[in-house]
Design a protein that fits this description.
Elements: H1 3-18, E1 25-26, H2 27-45, E2 49-55, E3 63-64, H3 70-81, E4 88-97, E5 100-107, H4 114-119, H5 135-148, E6 155-159, E7 163-171
Parallel strand pairs: 2-4
Antiparallel strand pairs: 1-3, 4-5, 5-7, 6-7
Helix pairs in contact: 1-2
């Protein structure tokens, strides 16, 4: 990637982060934001990152809160892939499930122990001496709970050396008034 292309991606990324707005955005916009972030990181760690998409076409127009997906991708990269010695892969997925959209970010990174996983959402997560462990996940979890209620939790599945999958559901329309509270 040439420097001018990278600067454009960087500008797009910062612009989205500075003024995300309060309105839900189309899933495609969240993907664009993730791709801008990934381009920046690939410029730094080129051969260590592979990103794939497993997204059903019918969910591309689904609306979701801005900046809900990129922190999960960033978390997968920083805490899952980069600590590995070899290349890592992140798969961003989305599909319809029982009237909702299931969104997931899966990596084949270093994973977490059961103790780390169980303490992830506690006040002082295990391994919190590493910068930022759990903060992005806690923020996304709190935002999802505030917008959609406890029927749409952030689910984290992980095992050492097996990677991590973080997923959640939102109403297919993506609007928080479509019934997170039953």
């Amino acid at each position: 990637m040439i420097a001018s292309d990278l600067l454009v991606k960087l500008a797009d990324f910062f612009r989205s982060n500075i003024n995300p707005g309060n309105e839900n955005v189309p899933f495609t916009r969240e993907i664009d934001h993730c791709e801008a972030y990934i381009c920046i990181e690939k410029a730094r760690f080129e051969d260590r990152i592979a990103v794939k998409y497993d997204i059903a076409p019918e969910v591309l127009d689904c609306k979701l809160p801005p900046l809900i997906l990129q922190p999960l991708v960033e978390n997968a990269l920083k805490h899952g892939i980069l600590p590995k010695e070899d290349e890592g892969e992140i798969i961003i997925g989305a599909y319809r499930e029982n009237g909702f959209v299931r969104i997931s970010v899966r990596d084949n990174g270093v994973g977490m122990s059961p103790d780390q996983l169980n303490s992830l959402f506690s006040e002082k997560p295990l391994g919190s001496s590493r910068n930022g462990v759990g903060i992005a996940l806690r923020n996304v979890k709190m935002r999802l709970a505030a917008l959609y209620g406890t029927d749409h939790p952030l689910i984290v599945e992980s095992a050492p050396r097996k990677g991590t999958t973080v997923s959640f559901t939102i109403p297919f329309g993506g609007d928080s008034d479509e019934g997170g509270h039953h």
